Amino acid sequence: MAEAAGDSPSHVDIDVAIVGAGIIGIAAASFLQDEGRDVLLIDRGEPAQGASFGNAGAFAFSDILPLASPRIMRKAPRWLIDPLGPLSIPPAYLPEILPWLIRFWRASWPDRVRGAMVAQAALMRLASREMAALVAAAGLDGMVRSDGSLELYEHEAELTAAMPGWDARAQEGIAFQHVRGAAMADLQPGLSPRFVAGTFVPGWKTVSDPYDFASALAARVVRRGGRIARHEVAAIRPVAGGVALDCRDGRTITARQAVIACGAWSRPLARALGDDVPLETERGYNTTLPPGAFDIRRQLIFGGHGFVITPLSSGIRVGGAVELGGLTRAPNFARSEAMLRKAADFLPGLKTDGGRQWMGFRPSLPDSLPVIGASRASADIVYAFGHGHLGLTQSAATGRLVADLLAGRAPALDISPFSPQRF
Ligand SMILES: Cc1cc2nc3c(=O)[nH]c(=O)nc-3n(C[C@H](O)[C@H](O)[C@H](O)COP(=O)(O)OP(=O)(O)OC[C@H]3O[C@@H](n4cnc5c(N)ncnc54)[C@H](O)[C@@H]3O)c2cc1C
User: Is the C-beta atom of 363 inside 6 A of ligand 1?
Assistant: First the structure.
């Protein structure tokens, strides 16, 4: 990589520099290449080793309800009592996360919930369309399972409590079917009798393995002439004729335009550009059991317990949970084990030996919406981060919107709800 001559480059090293080679950066590169743009993906590590490595692999297009909601606020105190439950906050991190929690609480008010849901539904419609196009163009249909998901309820009261959420989805045109008895057992044989009902969502899809999927897309970026370079970017700044990226190894890379797609680590880069975005991380945990640990027919969702089970080519992945614990604390894999124990109760006969544990950093905003938009400092520096639980699902839509923004076109949908300046 050539070094920049100074702050006013007469030429730039690259057309578009994308910082962060997770699924969001990789998808952005893919859509920019469709328009003939020359892209450089920059990551401090190998591609797709962050949150995009070990997630649950779902294209969760029906997941339009924001996490911040009156329902979650009612459940949260009970969840927080259990240190290994679906939601936890290490006490020492509480002072740091408090401002984010206050914003989260405000985002749970009914007026905000409705707005967030409408914005999320619009993004999901684009996500479904653009992901289908990307998968087809990349020839990755063989990596996508289209067998839907099954959410499970232990009590009638749990289903009743979920009904307003399903009604809201119905209003957005999302198909689903509540099931019981034999219909439920057909969708997933071998469930514990403690589950009295379920909801089948046919439009939900999963990938064979999220790392394989992201890697295949990254390999396609390279095949189409894109480059991947290993640097840690310390700062990005507008310069005459483009953008300069200062790397920790002392290099400066210049580009016409840049994208910040550093997932949970994006906050300092945005702050230096004048955008103090309240990005936090929701740490999530899982265990991937060897293939054959159970005959899982489709993704199973245990909403009351905050985890899912996904059949992958690499095995059976059991996990989820939210730990608001920041970016530096060591993982607490007792969380993975707690979910595995529950999974064994829910699926009697599940073989729990030989699993691989993993923890990942979801990049999360308090209103459950991502940040997609231009920086305050320059229209040539665009943000694409903060997708929380839905980054894989929304990666292609984000790529489409980033390409629109950098081309100076009206974006494919109203992006004001995702503005970096909304806070
Ligand atoms: C347990 C769990 C389950 C999940 N399940 C799902 C699911 O089923 N479906 C779904 O849609 N989403 C799911 N998610 C969320 C999803 O994984 C994330 O939203 C998504 O991976 C975020 O992608 P990203 O590219 O923004 O970030 P990442 O994948 O974290 O990538 C960010 C990249 O930026 C790089 N980077 C950071 N700082 C710098 C820097 N300064 N310089 C250079 N490089 C830098 C990192 O090395 C990293 O490679 C899940 C997450 C978890 C934790």
Answer: yes
Q: Is the pLDDT of residue 108 over 90?
A: yes
Q: Is the CB of 287 under 6 A from ligand 1?
A: no
Report pLDDT digits (tens) over 197-209: 999 999 999 999 9
Task: Say if ligand 1 is within 6 A of residue 360 CB.
Answer: yes
CA 313 to CA 177: how far, in whole Å?
27
pLDDT band per the 50, 70, 90 thresholds, residue 370: very high
Choose which residue among 265, 308, 336 to substitute to test ligand 1 binding: the one with the highest number of ligand atoms within 8 A of its C-beta.
265
Ligand 1 within 6 A of CB of 56: yes
Q: What is the pLDDT of residues 155-164, one digit of tens each?
A: 999 999 999 9
Give tens-digit pLDDT for 162-177: 999 999 999 999 999 9
- Cβ of 57 closer than 6 Å to ligand 1, yes or no, is yes
Distance separating alpha carbons of residues 336 and 319, to the nearest angstrom: 7
Residue type for position 280: E
Q: Could you give the angle at which helices 110-138 and 210-223 cross, rounded to 10 degrees?
A: 60
Q: Does residue 306 have its Cβ closer than 6 Å to ligand 1? A: no
CB 151 within 8 A of CB 301: yes
Report the CATH fold assignment for 14-52+212-278+368-418: FAD/NAD(P)-binding domain (3.50.50)
- CATH fold of 66-109+133-204+280-364, please? D-Amino Acid Oxidase; Chain A, domain 2 (3.30.9)
CA-nearest residue for atom 15, ligand 1, is 389
Q: How far apart are the first and last CA of the chain?
A: 37
